[in-house]
Amino acid sequence: MEFVSGWTSPELTAAPAGGERTGPGGSGERAACVMCGEPTEYPAHTRGATLCPVCEWQEAERFSCACS
Fold first, then answer.
1. For residues 50 and 7, what is the distance between their CA atoms, to the nearest angstrom?
2. Of 8, 14, 39, 49, which alpha carbon lies 20 to 30 A from 31's?
3. How many CA atoms are closer than 13 Å to the CA of 35, on its beta-carbon side?
4. 50 with 33: CB under 8 angstroms?
5. Residue environment code for 5-43, b if the CB has 16+ CB neighbours within 10 A, otherwise e
6. Residue 66 above 50 pLDDT?
7. For residue 39, which phi and psi values (nearest 5 degrees)?
8. Residue 26 and residue 10: Cα distance in Å, rounded?
């Protein structure tokens, strides 16, 4: 029996400077963030307003409730 961990080396999953991702499940061009223009985690054909992880975090902080 062979053990498969599911671990993928960072070289295969890191996004190159050109905004394209290589490796399993991430091939192709990445959508640009609608706020800052940086590449996102989403494919270029994704519908809707795509945000990069930084802008997603900032947007979530803006709309979070500080009532507690």
1. 27
2. 8
3. 11
4. yes
5. eeeeeeeeeeeeeeeebeeeebeeebbbbeeeeebbebe
6. yes
7. -65, 145
8. 13
Cβ–Cβ under 8 Å, residues 28 and 21: yes
Phi first, then psi: give them for residue 65, nearest 5 degrees.
-85, 130
Give me the percent of the chain exceeding a pLDDT of 90: 43
Interval 16-40 mean pLDDT: 72
The answer to pTM > 0.85 is no
In which band, very low, low, confident or very high, does the pLDDT at 31 lie, cut at 50, 70 and 90? very high
Helix/strand/coil (H, E, C) string of 4-65? CCCCCCHHHHCCCCCCEECCCCCCEEEEECCCCCCEEEEECCCCCCCCCHHHHHHHHHHHCC
